[in-house]
Design brief:
seven-stranded mixed beta sheet; single chain; D-Maltodextrin-Binding Protein, domain 2; alpha+beta; Fructose-1,6-Bisphosphatase, Chain A, domain 1; 7 helices; 2 domains
Amino acid sequence: MTASHPYEALMPRLLDDARTAGDIAMGYFRLGERSSAGVSSKEGGSPVTEADHNVDAYLRARLPAALPGAGWLSEETADTDDRLSRDLVFIVDPIDGTRGFIGGDARWAVAIALVDRGKPVLGIVHLPARGETFTAIAGMGARRNGEPITASARSGLSGSRIAGPRGTLDAMARGGLAFETEPKIPSLAYRLVRVAEGTLDAGIASTHACDWDIAAADLILREAGGLLTDLAGERPHYNRKSTRHPMLCASAPHLHEAMLSALRAASPAGG
């Protein structure tokens, strides 16, 4: 059987690479305990482990070989302008949710996106410690462990379940909204795919999320029927000179306008 989509034939190879990358990270992970990996601090103070670097090195060797000519952007690889001249770019977070990974929280992910002229066309969010793998190819729907997923059908914010920065959620609640909150999720990619599978109705990304945090999950969310935009309603664009984004809102489709209105009102106190 021939692939019906130009990236469908590529997905099995990239899935194998994601799973092997997850296995590398799992060698350092201790559920409920501190990781065995050595930890250092990056510029700005965020932690990075030897597991992050080893996963990055593995994926840097594997993924571009699967699609010669594609560019590369990873949280743990020094960035260059070379990627800006490429139509196709791999955007990777070797371990999204490093703080959770270090502390023994299973909610971290290997995130891999393929972007074509600024738009994600293939996405993988693999959570090896949870046995969950979310995938999407543009125009072909989203899946969790091979089964189709769809975003929530909820149409009102009252009673909805929302995850995001505590300051922003508190500001929304002070505005009179009644909703349930989710305990902090270390991986932003996992937060977004939780919206894609409908176990969250909405998720918020605070200012300065980067391409590697969101690109793969963005496609999975959209293919599941959800939306991800900034507070002006604009979709993220990837592989620009700056990798950073403003505050973003992910939600079920019928909640999006209400979420944007609530976030605009709450954003001065956002976290």
